[in-house]
């Protein structure tokens, strides 16, 4: 088998024969075509050698048995062997064991004529034992007769590219791992959030159910308060009827006396128009007073629709006038002491009802305990920016065991025919809930004191 080295030797022999013909000018004169071919051959040879030895990739000629025939400098640098060392080896000797089977399969396919060339990525074992990745391109050179001569191999070192690819692959795997971990964390977080949302929905539904129950309870309490207020007003109305009776008894007696007095001058023969007019005027004054009393009672039962600014001393005076008849009948003395002109922005009729409930309770306590010198004192004044009214009696006070219960609904110490137990409860509701004030009670030396602050 001929190799490039054999061809080179033939050309060298031919050149020596041509040179033996004489000097260059002689050869050029007598054998110009032959000399031109010789010159072209030399230039081609120089270009081939320069390309072969200075190529940026490894180039080699290999025999059909895999032995290295000719190797350039780049291939030697790539695998770490000298040219002489490589010529004593085959490509199988420096191929990585894991890549040898595939390399031989391609090699045999070329030799079998199945393909003319092939290109693969494979690994060589460097002289120092390290791995070198290469891109190998192999072409088969054959004679015109079809006989295979040798193989041309181009070897490109791709170790750095492979390292970069491996680093990228490792980075991708690490990224994929982190994404998987993060995805798992997110799934866990989403699951926890879904559970939390479900818990919140359940809690919200429970809260809504509780709110509905509270609203129902509040509505029930409102209805009960309205019922208690109605009962309180009905009880107060009963008291008012009694007070009206007391208020009207004396004026009616007075009117009767005036009418009887009109007859006396007639019996004596001294009847005159002046006497009649005087008696009528006196009776009309009494009737006007009674009519005024009716207006006072009617105003008391008229509900307040809006908060208004009112003078406390005026409401106290009007309320005392409503009970003065019954108090006078039971010989209870009432004294009102006013300092300044305290004002309240609230509901005057409801405020009057509170005062009336307390005054009626005081009257009943006097009647029950048969107090001889019964007295009630009302003080009206201002303290720390608040309008204050105190109602003090000398009826012996409230038993200590029930003092903290007197404002409870339906609690009463009176008989079933004298009390409903809602008067003081409604009084506290009016002052503290409707007017943002405070109603308290305490015992004094010989009686009880109720204090209203608004």
Give the topology, please.
Layout: H1 4-19, H2 24-30, H3 32-54, E1 58-62, E2 68-71, H4 73-79, H5 83-87, H6 91-94, H7 97-111, E3 117-125, E4 131-142, E5 148-157, H8 159-267, H9 273-301, E6 308-311, H10 312-329, E7 333-338, E8 343-346, H11 348-369, E9 375-383, E10 386-393, H12 423-434, E11 438-443, E12 448-453
Parallel strand pairs: 7-9
Antiparallel strand pairs: 1-2, 1-5, 3-4, 4-5, 6-8, 9-10, 10-12, 11-12
Helix pairs in contact: 2-3, 8-9, 8-10, 10-11, 11-12
Strand order of the largest sheet: 2-1-5-4-3
Low-confidence stretches: none
Give the number of helices.
Answer: 12
What kind of assembly state do the chains in view correspond to? single chain
Integer average pLDDT: 82
In the CATH hierarchy, the third-tier topology of the largest domain is known as Heat Shock Protein 90
Quickly name the level 1 CATH class of the largest domain.
Answer: Alpha Beta
Q: What portion of residues belong to β-strands?
A: 15-25%
Helix content: 55-70%
Report Rg: 65 Å
The best one-word shape is: rod-shaped
Structural class: alpha+beta
**How many structural domains in the coordinates?**
2
Instruction: Summarize the helix and strand pattern as letters.
Output: HHHEEHHHHEEEHHEHEEHEEHEE
* CATH architect. name of the largest domain: 2-Layer Sandwich
What is the CATH superfamily label of the largest domain? Histidine kinase-like ATPase, C-terminal domain
